[in-house]
Specification:
There is one protein chain. By secondary structure, the protein is an alpha+beta fold. It has two domains: 3-77, 3-Layer(aba) Sandwich (Rossmann fold); 109-182, Alpha-Beta Plaits (2-Layer Sandwich), CATH 3.30.70. It is 29% helix and 17% strand. Strands 1-3-2 form a three-stranded mixed β-sheet. The chain has a three-stranded antiparallel β-sheet with strand order 4-7-8. The longest helix is centred in the N-terminal third of the chain and has 12 residues, at 3-14. The radius of gyration is 19 Å and the shape is elongated. Mean pLDDT is 75; it is low at 184-199.
């Protein structure tokens, strides 16, 4: 370890129980090219510092995403990691590796099929941005603030009727089954297993 890195390392280690944010963004490790791996981590300073040290001599991209200064393990337990991974894949924001969901670009938009909604309210309970609310009689989910959606997909994963899904401006649809097959559900088990549905 270089002397200039020693004091920050000691500081970060001593304060490791407190959120401490590193800058977010794409970090070059070595001399990465189109075939180099893309590694994802949260922006907990100690984690980023240790990863950079461990990866010395490796050619890779390190994508430091906003986990609110929380380490990856705690961010995963708190539901932040699902948002990080899905948002990166939906946006297709890595430099040389195409997204597995969004292969042609565009911004995802949350959509609701009102004919499938039964008012279970799981979506309302898990949404971190208050995009959804219950309305009417009987109360059913409605999209109250679409602009506030952060595309974390928690509502899609939790909906027992697969009433929610993403669309892109060109008409492409990201089915609930696709979201669930490529993401961990860190918010608990789905209340009902739904199979064979296609929006």
């Amino acid at each position: 370890m270089r002397m200039r890195d020693l004091l920050p390392y000691v500081r970060d280690t001593a304060l490791r129980l407190l959120p401490h944010r590193a800058p977010t963004g794409l970090v070059r490790i070595g001399d990465p090219g189109p075939e180099s791996p893309v590694l994802l981590t949260g922006n907990f300073t100690l984690t980023v510092r240790r990863l950079r040290r461990v990866l010395e001599g490796t050619d890779a991209w390190l994508l430091v995403a906003n986990s609110h200064g929380i380490n990856v393990w705690c961010a995963a337990g708190g539901g932040h990691l699902t948002q990080l991974v899905l948002s990166v894949d939906l946006a297709g924001t890595t430099p040389d590796h195409p997204s597995t969901v969004n292969t042609r670009g565009g911004t995802p938009r949350i959509c609701l099929d009102p004919d499938r909604c039964t008012g279970a309210a799981d979506c309302v309970q898990v949404c971190p941005a208050e995009v959804l609310r219950l309305s009417g009689s009987p109360p059913l989910a409605v999209i109250a603030d679409e602009a506030a959606c952060i595309a974390c997909a928690a509502c899609i994963v939790q909906c027992p009727e697969d009433a929610l899904f993403f669309t892109y401006p060109d008409g492409r649809i990201v089915e609930p089954a696709t979201v669930r097959s490529t993401r961990l559900n860190l918010l608990g088990d789905r209340s009902i297993e739904v199979t064979g549905h296609s929006v």
